[in-house]
Amino acid sequence: MPTDGLPLSRRRFLHGAGAAAVAAFLSACGLPVDGSPTSTLEPVSTGSGTSTGLVRPTLPSMTPTLTATVPPVSIPTTQAMVTRADFHQQALQDSPLAPTATNAPPSPTPPPAPTPTPAATPFPAGPPSKLGLFVGWYHNQIRELIATRNVAVLKTLELDPTFLAEVKALSPETLIVGRVTLGQLDLNRPDLQSEARRAVEAVLPLALDGRRAGLVDAWEGFNEPVPGNEEQMRRLAGLEAERVRLLAANGLRAVVGNFGTGQPPLEWWPAFRPALEAAQAHGGYLGLHEYSAPTIWFNTNRAPLDFGVAATDEGWLTLRYRKVYRQYLIPWGLRLPLVITECGVDGLVNDRPGPPGKGWKDFAGFWAEMGMGQDAAGNYVEQLAWYDGQLQLDDYVLGATVFAMTAFEEWRSYELKGEAAEILQQYLSVHPPRQ
User: Fold this and answer.
1) Helix axes 273-281 and 230-249, enclosed angle (nearest 10)
2) Which of 305, 308, 334 is nearest to 49 (CA)?
3) Strands 309-310 and 51-52
4) Are 10 and 373 in contact (CB under 8 A)?
5) Residue pLDDT, tens place only, 88-102
6) pTM for this one?
7) How far apart are the first and last CA of the chain?
8) Is 393 a member of any domain?
9) With 80 as the cut, is the pLDDT of residue 365 above it?
10) How many domains in the chain?
11) Which of 66, 79, 345, 391 could form a disulfide with 360 if both were Cys (CB 3.0 to 4.6 A apart)?
12) What is 340-373 written as a DSSP string?
């Protein structure tokens, strides 16, 4: 049943005049108000019709300031105003020597009574989540999230065998994708087959080590390859198909592609078909990255504050995977399991509104101006919950790893660790464990 009008998260936004004010602001900032993309052209990046929704409690409506429901971590509320009383000294009427009556100085203003902080509004229960985590290095909060048994995919640069074993012990159904650092791929090299061998040789000592054997479910290759034309796309397909076969010869599975957000041009996908067929033949996966900014749904058909979810939704950055599958893979009979190996808010995408920035933390003030409130971490997890609701509509999607649970210094503005991870843990905990 259609649910576009239903709330999909912890808060609902103002209607009527309040929504009109938000729409006027968004229009001034260059954001689409009616939900249509700002351009019919595909943006270039650097880096059926059943509708569903996640039910969320109602946020009290206030005028003229938009104030969000308090997140799991408390924030101060507005202090109550205390009216100061003036005390008047009455003139002595029964004495001829009585002085003229004067006002006594006001008594000191008493301090306001503390206003109790409202209880945080949790996420409501929902179906099993398809959200996952990108891990750069180990932190105790990772264990807490994995212990919910509802992390669909873990993509990790941290390949310590004790860590990998702990993940599998806590959540056996979590798919672990391993990545090693290979450097940028040069598609102009005359012998790309040697690059396929190099990628596999970097993995084998780790994958076949007795302490890690069987713990990593699949291995990525080169990160975000960028073919410059259709011929390079075809040569990349040959490289990836060879990498799939070499891994399979050692009992290992591959994640092919791992293209950056908004890449490659849709019309080049037929040139990549040999890699997809090899992956399907050897139990592999397709990997894609999906980011957008200033919100995760920018450049989809959804309006800026529309948390609606429908199987007909598509986008040029996030939800681009639906175009790929509907136009190419499904007609080819290739329902290759899809892993979104990176996702989230990334200000490095081109042709977007909003302030300069990189990760979600850089957009906290902009979200507040949009009317989403001051709770940046809660706002971000709500956007991830929206994306999760979309992924749940497509059975070929296994999961999407949010970049990043833990990150290195250059990428700290993307990091979930801390308050955002606490909110995400509550979200995951009210979804059934993966079976």
Assistant:
1) 10
2) 308
3) antiparallel
4) no
5) 333 333 333 334 444
6) 0.76
7) 27
8) yes
9) yes
10) 1
11) 345
12) EEEEEE-TTBSS--S-S-SSGGGGHHHHIIIII-
